[in-house]
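$ ./design --mode recover --in tokens.txt
reading tokens...
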């Protein structure tokens, strides 16, 4: 393995040099704006931009997805279901793994880079006008949100699947009036913006629920469910809940994923193959299915076409979510970046994989609950290689090792400042045996700790943006 650009460009790019240069110039202009780690809670600027663009967010119905974890996977599943049923889709998700064009998808694929550049230049004069009228310039995420809505309206799409960037009430995506509001599991994350009180975080997420909304709710802590139920009552919104109205009836590990039996709003869906691992992904599948059922008014024994549902889930991909990028030894990538996500990852690794030895490669952003992430992973890892994913926000590898010392102990920690070196070291550790005749088969490596970490590792293994 050789060194790579960790700035999340694709390892192998089919983009012609002129378009690639134009894309870099657009990104340079966007990067001069407030990043997604700096917020000013207001939807006034994005609303002003949308007004100048002719309110493209109202050009098609929207399924709006909020929550702490599972939003992107659920959004991809919803997109696949809608596509197989015959609708043209647009999907807006964040953050991206390798290339910013992943954030705006049309027909299930990242927007063409030349179209991305053209969309930026179409909206840029209006962005400048909004900037001139406000004390705070539009942030990068706000501009990207406006670009997504403009691209969807221009396509045009039949339905847009829109993932909340952060929170809900004040998120730039919350200018939509969604046909269906979906809330994935809510937990503590982004405490610098949302605070540490789970009920306050839940209230912020529930801000996407509008008057008369149809709401699809994942399994939640009791106090979170109460907050969302109160919001639904205030907004006269109909809410269906995981474990009550829909859910996972059975899940069996299968080659390359799992075989599910799902309880939908309209009945039972049998023999659903999902090429993703983990009970959390099975729950995401049930959530996505219920969302699409709600969108089409299914229920009371009215089901979606079972063959379309099977085809949709069989085609689902969620890059960087327990994604296998190599065998012998198995190397998995996962974007878990908070304790809730790390616990889901650890559970999936324990339940759906059998490793003789599993080594972790971890790089975490400095503003995250680093000790909580490491503690969640510790039970399933024999050793851990601590590194940096190349982001300025990443915790220094030596500092990360200082945090890990109390969790893993000094004998289970290795520090490698570069990600490529860290993966090579992890492979060597995984293949080590205690006895000369002990087989080396059955070893594994999991690379995790951040979306950026997963994206940088995907680039190292030559994966195209998806």
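writing sequence...
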């Amino acid at each position: 393995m050789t060194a790579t650009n960790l700035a999340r460009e694709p390892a192998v790019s089919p983009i012609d040099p002129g378009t690639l240069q134009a894309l870099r110039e657009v990104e340079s202009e966007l990067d001069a704006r407030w990043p997604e780690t700096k917020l000013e809670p207001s939807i006034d600027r994005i609303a002003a931009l949308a007004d100048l663009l002719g309110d493209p967010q109202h050009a098609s119905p929207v399924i709006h997805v909020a929550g702490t974890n599972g939003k992107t996977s659920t959004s991809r599943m919803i997109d696949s279901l809608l596509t197989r049923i015959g609708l043209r889709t647009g999907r807006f998700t964040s953050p991206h793994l390798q290339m910013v064009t992943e954030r705006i998808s049309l027909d299930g694929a990242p927007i063409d880079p030349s179209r991305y550049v053209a969309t930026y230049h179409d909206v840029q004069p209006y962005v400048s006008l909004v900037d001139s009228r406000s004390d705070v310039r539009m942030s990068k995420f706000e501009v990207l949100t406006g670009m997504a809505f403009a691209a969807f309206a221009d396509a045009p799409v039949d339905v847009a699947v829109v993932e909340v960037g952060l929170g809900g009430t004040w998120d730039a995506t919350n200018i939509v009036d969604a046909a269906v509001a979906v809330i994935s599991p809510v937990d503590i994350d982004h405490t610098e913006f949302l605070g540490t009180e789970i009920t306050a975080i839940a209230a912020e997420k529930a801000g996407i629920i509008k008057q008369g909304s149809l709401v699809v709710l994942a399994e939640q802590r009791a106090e979170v469910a109460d907050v969302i139920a109160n919001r639904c009552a205030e907004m006269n919104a109909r809410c269906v809940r995981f474990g009550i109205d829909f859910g996972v009836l059975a899940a069996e590990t299968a080659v390359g994923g799992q075989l599910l039996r799902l309880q939908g709003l309209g009945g039972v869906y049998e023999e659903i193959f999902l090429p993703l691992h983990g009970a959390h992904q099975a729950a995401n599948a049930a959530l996505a299915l219920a969302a699409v059922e709600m969108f089409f008014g299914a229920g009371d024994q009215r089901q979606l076409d079972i063959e379309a549902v099977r085809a949709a889930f069989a085609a689902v991909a969620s890059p960087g979510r327990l994604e296998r990028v190599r065998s012998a030894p198995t190397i998995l990538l996962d974007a878990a970046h908070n304790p809730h996500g790390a616990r889901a990852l650890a559970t999936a690794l324990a339940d759906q994989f059998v490793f003789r030895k599993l080594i972790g490669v971890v790089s975490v952003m400095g503003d995250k609950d680093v000790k909580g992430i490491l503690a969640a992973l510790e039970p399933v890892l024999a050793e851990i290689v601590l590194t940096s994913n190349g982001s300025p926000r990443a915790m220094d590898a030596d500092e990360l090792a200082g945090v890990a010392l109390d969790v893993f102990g000094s004998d289970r920690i290795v520090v490698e400042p570069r990600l490529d070196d860290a993966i090579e070291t992890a492979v060597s550790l995984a293949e080590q045996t205690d006895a000369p005749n002990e087989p080396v088969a059955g070893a594994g490596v999991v690379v995790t700790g951040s979306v950026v970490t997963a994206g940088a590792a995907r680039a190292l293994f030559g994966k195209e943006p998806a």
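exit 0
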